[in-house]
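Q: What residues go here?
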């Protein structure tokens, strides 16, 4: 039976379809991380557009764990702002889940008020190489656990329907999970159980304070790092998550220093990378001109570009009974139905398609369209570090012409295996 547009539940939450908005950093926080009015409008627009559920962009749990200056934070002061937002989203019968993050080594001193970034081990990130992280001590680890639990309490007070722990993409919790980034020999590193311990402790602390408030987790199926996270480990971590009472697992991949692995593209936008990438943007323009041809060599393009985490999600789904969500390059209705009906995942989520068409699910459900207009250019991602989230599709059409665009779109191939 076709399940995509039927009601379903994650724990006690009701979803009217199985197409979710994956966490997408909106760049709509003021300098303190208070959500701006435009963020509220964006979520209402998504809710009206028929999405099954919304996962917010990253929200920070503590100042020295900020990933970006324009991201949102969750403090007691902001609860009323978030509550207004969740009330308005709920008018449309759509659950909204707050994604919580600590950046770990994926940040720089400038963003965290001159402090040194923290990480499980003092291993420099290629993308943030100027800010070598310091190895966290036990007190710092317990402070992070406590801050996540406090943030979860606040999210509940603010009317969110649940939270998602960001344990993917190379942020702090993902650093603990990956043997590449976590070289500790104490109780927080080494075997899988130890690397998972910080997440287990966060979930336990949260459950003590918030009862059965839904907790979802986003993990990497693999991270492409030498001796890093691989699917067999992600499967074991998923089983540990289920044992701890996690309510749903979203499966993604990649880390920031691996360029366009998480957010894949057919064509690396070299000019924009030169303009926005942290390592390069401050470099003298003559040097930039010299290194431009190297961007294509050093920044790896990962393939496939469509439905690239379904295979990992499918393996995880086989080993747990909680719902699994697949994200990454999912673009067309036929593919979505196939993923769900063939048990590739219980839900799919998308990020970029909702930027160009916030009402894409209504279009799918009414037959107005069967495929996203998104060409996966990744401009939205590069630009969102210092401006509000928007789609740059029109700019690309202007620059490259309809001819090229048609070629890009005709290359769209889905991999559902
Ligand atoms: C502009 C932008 C911002 C993103 N911000 C987040 C984020 O805050 N948290 C997160 O887990 N993933 C984030 N992602 C990754 C997406 O959730 C998703 O995993 C990835 O884009 C692949 O899905 P897509 O092909 O549907 O865009 C972001 C992606 C984009 C394009």
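A:
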């Amino acid at each position: 039976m076709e399940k995509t547009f039927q009601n379903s539940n994650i724990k006690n939450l009701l979803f009217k379809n199985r197409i979710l908005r994956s966490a997408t950093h909106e760049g709509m926080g003021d300098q303190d991380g208070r959500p701006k009015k435009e963020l509220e409008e964006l979520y209402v627009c998504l809710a009206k557009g028929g999405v099954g559920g919304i996962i917010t962009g990253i929200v920070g749990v503590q100042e020295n764990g900020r990933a970006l200056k324009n991201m949102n934070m969750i403090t007691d002061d902001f609860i009323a702002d978030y509550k207004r937002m969740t009330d308005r989203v709920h008018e449309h019968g759509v659950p909204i889940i707050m994604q919580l993050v600590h950046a770990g080594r994926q940040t720089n001193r400038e963003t965290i008020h001159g402090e040194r970034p923290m990480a499980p081990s003092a291993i420099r990130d290629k993308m943030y190489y100027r800010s070598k992280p310091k190895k966290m001590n036990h007190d710092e680890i317990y402070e992070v656990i406590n801050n996540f639990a406090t943030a979860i309490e606040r999210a509940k007070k603010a009317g969110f329907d649940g939270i998602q722990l960001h344990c993917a993409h190379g942020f702090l919790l993902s650093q603990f999970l990956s043997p590449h980034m976590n070289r500790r020999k104490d109780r927080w590193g080494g075997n899988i159980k130890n690397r998972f311990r910080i997440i287990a402790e966060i979930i336990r602390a949260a459950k003590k304070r918030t009862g059965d408030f839904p907790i979802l987790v986003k993990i990497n199926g693999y991270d492409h790092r030498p001796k890093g996270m691989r699917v067999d480990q992600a499967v074991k971590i998923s089983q540990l998550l289920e044992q701890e009472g996690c309510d749903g697992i979203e499966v993604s991949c990649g880390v920031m220093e691996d360029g366009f692995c998480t957010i894949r593209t057919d064509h690396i936008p070299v000019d924009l990378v030169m303009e926005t990438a942290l390592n390069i943007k401050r470099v003298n323009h003559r040097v930039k001109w010299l290194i431009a041809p190297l961007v294509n060599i050093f920044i790896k393009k990962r393939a496939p570009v469509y439905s690239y985490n379904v295979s990992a999600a499918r393996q995880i789904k086989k080993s747990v009974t909680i719902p699994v969500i697949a994200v990454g390059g999912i673009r067309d209705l036929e593919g979505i139905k196939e993923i769900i009906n063939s048990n590739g995942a219980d839900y799919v989520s998308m990020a970029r398609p909702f930027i160009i068409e916030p009402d894409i699910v209504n279009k799918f459900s009414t037959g107005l369209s069967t495929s996203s207009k998104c060409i996966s250019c990744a401009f939205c991602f590069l630009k969102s570090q210092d401006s509000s989230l928007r789609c740059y599709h029109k700019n690309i059409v202007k620059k490259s012409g309809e001819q090229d665009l048609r070629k890009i779109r005709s290359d769209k191939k889905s991999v559902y295996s």
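A: Context that may help when evaluating the design: Residues 408-417 have pLDDT under 50 and may be disordered. Residues 138-157 form the longest helix (20 residues).
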